Amino acid sequence: MGLDAYVPCNCYKDGKTKPPPFPEDYIFFEEETGMPELAQPYSEDDEKWNTFMDWRLTACEHEDMEIASERIANWGGLRYFQQALDRVGWEHFPTLRDEIPDYNGGFTPPQASAKALEELKFFQEQRKLGSYPFLIDTERGTELREYTEAYEGIFIMDGRHGMFIGFDKDGLFFIKQPEGKSVLRAGKLVFQAKRVEQQIRGSIKKQVVYTDLDTGKQFVCQTEIEFDGRCPRYMHVEQRSIDPSEFDYIIIPLTKVFKASVEIGNPVYWC
Predict the structure, then answer these.
(1) Do residues 136 and 235 touch, judged by C-beta distance below 8 A?
(2) Tens-place pLDDT, residues 35-77
(3) pTM given for the model
């Protein structure tokens, strides 16, 4: 789950598409999507709908009539970016604050897209963005996860076993959630450590043993920490400085759709 965006072309409005498979009165232009759509009741006919969508996919030189189409970020990545904007100061990013949605839907007009590009450039010019806690794979020295304030550091919510796992500046923590409760940090803190060993024992009845490498204290549960199909043996939490390049994953696609919006004069549609 996450946020995507596209900018439609003007080919249909300018009469530059292949002839549609249905009479013009079957089709209307939807302002909320910036696209020609199949009108009711024809849109309820699966065969007509599929024929129409096949036409739209190749009706002009732009695939699906989109001059730009980008995956912006998953929701965690978006929240991390918003966290960095907040650190610099929202007064510098009023357009990014107001225009990037918290849900799938809505649009940003080209005038706002131009302002958003200026704000992204200002963000990239910042020399330092402070430091955040990171969860590190100790053996590889790689970052497994960055601290996200919006989720209070929690990155695993195992409802089956009632276990929330996260980290902050004080270390990796485990919270046992009361039955039926899903509020962040609502449960009981049962284990926390800055340097941890993870051992998975058993296959039929799995147990995961976490050991605080500073005190020797152990905690046993049924929830493992896994990243990209791998369960790191040793992990620790440390503060690391960050700079704007950390956010290229979201700045690059945002720049592409905002630029396309300005150049063609159509909104960015969020989906």
Answers:
(1) yes
(2) 999 888 877 878 988 999 999 999 999 999 999 999 999 999 9
(3) 0.82
Backbone angles phi, psi at 230, to 5 degrees: -130, 140
H or E segment at 261? Answer: helix 248-264
Domains of the chain, earliest start first: 10-68 (no CATH), 71-128+243-270 (1.20.1440), 131-241 (no CATH)
How are beta strands 195-201 and 35-38 bridged, if at all? unpaired
Secondary structure class of 39 (helix, strand, coil)? coil
Distance CA 86, CA 203 (A): 44
3-state class (DSSP) for residue 80:
helix
CA 97 to each of CA 82, 93, 119, 244, 249: distance values in angstroms, whole numbers, following the listed order: 8, 6, 10, 17, 18
Does position 161 have pLDDT exceeding 80, yes or no?
Answer: yes
Contact status, residue 186 vs residue 192, Cβ threshold 8 Å: no
State how far the Cα of 35 lies from the Cα of 1, in Å rounded to an integer: 23
**CA atoms within 13 A of residue 213's CA, in its CB half-sphere:** 14
> Of 149, 139, 185, which Cα lies nearest the Cα of 169?
149
Q: What is the pLDDT of residues 102-116, one digit of tens each?
A: 999 999 999 999 999
Rounded Cα–Cα distance for residues 116 and 108 (Å)? 10
Residue 232 preceded by cis peptide, ω within 30: no
- Tell me the helix, strand and coil percentages in the chain, rounded to 5: 30, 35, 35
* 225 vs 139: CA distance, rounded Å: 15
- State the Cα–Cα distance between residues 206 and 233, nearest whole angstrom: 16
Look at residue 212 and give its three-state secondary structure: strand
